[in-house]
Design goal:
Length: 228
């Protein structure tokens, strides 16, 4: 999903940069309401997990690559605003130190993976959770659904940007078929990983899962050391 330098023309890259800057700016303000002393460390863990997950890349076509996005996972665990910030930090570090996604395309990548990935994933999560029984066990299922939808949606938005300002001589239909087709498959994997990770966190510390707030949860596990 990482878009390289020069893949989109300058006006499109500038436009996505403005969108990304505005989104990150708003997220910095809104994230204050999501974080507290217990959940702030979780944001760091989420960023580290997504960073590691995004290291697994494979070619999709038309000069782009596919990998886990992590937007829905981050949004469910720490909230959509904080989740978007987590993914943005990961993308910034990757572009600066690992040449994974171009610097001039950083705004595009943040728009696609941090903003679209986190907020589409979280919106679907909330919609699915609303129709499921109101208990913590429904959270991983809804999170997996959000993750599955968020990945091909981000790929479709990328295709739209490519149709507007793509510089490669590749038919838009071919890009759409490659990106959405592959990312539907990636979305299945992302849904499985997201569901398993959220389920594991809920089993041990449901109080740390933003998406489980207000739901009936079992008491978190207590170790013998903690009990002593």
């Amino acid at each position: 999903m990482h878009v390289p330098d020069g893949f989109l023309d300058a006006p499109t890259s500038v436009a996505t940069g403005v969108v990304a800057a505005a989104g990150v700016g708003v997220a910095l303000r809104k994230a204050r309401a999501e974080l507290d002393d217990r959940t702030a460390p979780m944001a760091g863990l989420v960023a580290a997990f997504v960073f590691a997950g995004q290291m697994i890349n494979f070619p999709v076509g038309a000069g782009t690559s596919g990998h886990l996005l992590g937007g829905a996972l981050a949004a469910v665990l720490v909230g959509p605003w904080t989740g978007a910030l987590c993914i943005s930090v990961v993308l910034l570090v990757q572009s600066l130190f690992m040449a994974d996604g171009g610097l001039t395309a950083l705004g595009t990548n943040i728009t696609l993976m941090a903003i679209v990935g986190a907020f589409v994933g979280y919106a679907v999560f909330r919609l699915v959770l609303a129709v499921l029984p109101r208990r913590a066990g429904s959270v991983p299922v809804a999170a997996a659904a959000g993750a599955f939808v968020s990945v091909p949606t981000a790929a479709a938005v990328f295709t739209l940007l490519f149709a507007i300002g793509g510089t490669a001589d590749v038919a838009t239909g071919k890009v759409l078929a490659a990106m959405v087709g592959w990312h539907v498959v990636i979305g299945i994997g992302e849904a499985i990983v997201t569901g398993l990770v959220v389920s594991a966190v809920i089993a041990s510390r449901p109080d740390l899962v933003h998406g489980a707030r207000g739901l009936a949860t079992r008491a978190p596990l207590v170790t013998s050391e903690a009990a002593a």
